Every structure is written in structure tokens, then in C-alpha cells.
Amino acid sequence: MKDRRRDEHLLRPYRGCRVYVGGLPTDTSRSDIRDIFSKYRDRFDMKLKTRFAFIEFDYHRDADHAVDNLDGLTFRGRRISVEVARGPRTADKYRFKGGLNHEPVQATWVKRYGTPEITKYKILVKNLSTRIEWQDLKDLMKKAGTVTYALAHKNNMHEGMVCFSNEEGMLKAIDIFNDYDLCGRKLIVEEYYST
């Protein structure tokens, strides 16, 4: 029997993990952010806005350590919040830029993951680690077939839903991933029945 744990590393390094930092003083600089977060990784991407920032780590463990240790930190007299950033808020195909003369621009995640489509070939994934996001789940399930839609922890924590383009992919996913060890948790995978 193949060791299912060996696939876990495929979920991480290329995609990274984004952390939201809120409650920053208005005069926070990029070097301030580097000073705070360099303890958790020397190199990371940063998007600094007024009063908040997004930090992109290469590995989830670095993001997890930063969240665990920095959330609630007092920085220049202000308590900052540090938490794992959420993915796209909607399944919209396009994001619009302001103004009347701007055409819709396809969201970058659509280019990578495709236009989402909810089909009747759905599975429910239970006992999902909170470190797994919808992108991870979709990438993993591609081993079973063409994935058209995925979500994780949206309706219930530790649960996800994945849609396939056909019944064969759905059944193969149940066969492959039920009782699959992912991030130290045994997945429970079953057909999803809408009520």
C-alpha cells in the first residue's frame, strides 16, 4: 500500500500562505513589517496598505507560527491582529476595476484554477485540517478527475465540498481519498447529497 503521507508536501511550497495583519498604525513602514515577521521567515512577500498588510509565506508552517505568536501583539501602542487571510470572497469570474472605461479583468485565481462550476457530481470531505484551503483541496482531488469547484471550511469547519465534471471522477475520489491521511487527519469522503 502506498504511503499517502508522501503527497502532503505537494500541497504546500508552490502556493504559500497569506496572512492578514490588521490594526497597524498609519505610519507603519515595510521595514517595520520585516522586523516583526523576519523571525518566522527571512524572505516573504508583503502588500502594505494603510492600517493593514498581507504577508505571503512560502510555507504554511511559517504562517501558522506567525499567527500563533503575533496575534494580539502590541506594536507601537496598538494591539494588532494576525490571522490567516481568507481566499476570494466570491466565485465571480471577473473582478472589476473602477471607472466607466474599464473592461472586466479576469481574476488571477480563475486563470490558475478555472471558472468554478457546481455540478451534480459532488463529494463531501470531512475531518479536513484547517491548514487546507480550497485551492489545496482542488489540487489534491485532481488526481481523481477534473475538478470544477471546491470549497473548504465555508459552511462547517473541517468540511469541504468538491465537484467533478463526471461521475467517474467523483467515485474515484471517494475510492482514493476516503481514509486518506492528510496533515495528520484521516479524511472521510462520501457522496454529497443536496437536501
Automatic annotation (TrEMBL):
<feature type="domain" description="RRM">
    <location>
        <begin position="17"/>
        <end position="87"/>
    </location>
</feature>
<dbReference type="GO" id="GO:0006397">
    <property type="term" value="P:mRNA processing"/>
</dbReference>
<dbReference type="InterPro" id="IPR035979">
    <property type="entry name" value="RBD_domain_sf"/>
</dbReference>
<dbReference type="InterPro" id="IPR050374">
    <property type="entry name" value="RRT5_SRSF_SR"/>
</dbReference>
<dbReference type="Pfam" id="PF00076">
    <property type="entry name" value="RRM_1"/>
</dbReference>
<keyword id="KW-0677">Repeat</keyword>
<keyword id="KW-0694">RNA-binding</keyword>
<dbReference type="InterPro" id="IPR000504">
    <property type="entry name" value="RRM_dom"/>
</dbReference>
<dbReference type="GO" id="GO:0003729">
    <property type="term" value="F:mRNA binding"/>
</dbReference>
<protein>
    <submittedName>
        <fullName>Serine-arginine protein 55</fullName>
    </submittedName>
</protein>
<dbReference type="GO" id="GO:0005737">
    <property type="term" value="C:cytoplasm"/>
</dbReference>
<feature type="domain" description="RRM">
    <location>
        <begin position="121"/>
        <end position="194"/>
    </location>
</feature>
<dbReference type="GO" id="GO:0005634">
    <property type="term" value="C:nucleus"/>
</dbReference>
<keyword id="KW-0507">mRNA processing</keyword>
<keyword id="KW-0539">Nucleus</keyword>
<dbReference type="InterPro" id="IPR012677">
    <property type="entry name" value="Nucleotide-bd_a/b_plait_sf"/>
</dbReference>
